[in-house]
Amino acid sequence: AQSVTQPDIHITVSEGASLELRCNYSYGATPYLFWYVQSPGQGLQLLLKYFSGDTLVQGIKGFEAEFKRSQSSFNLRKPSVHWSDAAEYFCAGGQAGTALIFGKGTTLSVSS
Amino acid sequence: KAGVTQTPRYLIKTRGQQVTLSCSPISGHRSVSWYQQTPGQGLQFLFEYFSETQRNKGNFPGRFSGRQFSNSRSEMNVSTLELGDSALYLCASSLASATDTQYFGPGTRLTVL
Fold this sequence. Notes:
The structure holds two protein chains of two kinds. Chain A has no helices and twelve strands.
């Protein structure tokens, strides 16, 4: 069955430190892959999207993600975290004609 | 360009009642998807509408239904509410497909007492 898994429920990172959020997918063929962020009381905002081409995708707010077919992963990274990055992050996958499947999310806390 | 709007933003209902939630997509977007978000389950897909037709459906009971109008606005209805239906209901619109970039509304917070 198709699935998207975020192994980490909660991560705490010091401000200024680097960040990596993990996402694994299970699809027969390479899916469309997305990262969304949800700040408290706000709707989801798209950070970046991958379908094909360059496996390193640049997004908004300084985020990037790398698609690794061999590891079925699409991890989100940021070199230096800011306090305003504290939020919940969702990885999602889908294929043409189907619905998106979301991971259960990773809550990011930023310590000073 | 106006974003996705959802009404109402908050609702309190009692068990057994029914509720209708509304979603207005971004102008020009024809695909509307609905999701249920709860702390334990994350975002779960309810259904997707395109050109007034349900194109995909998630694994929810028949108490959950939806429809889309000719102007792409969408409604979802939940009948015979249960306590477990308490959740944030999110609507997302995209140009033509759920794999296009989806733009989410702020959600409707439903509380069932």
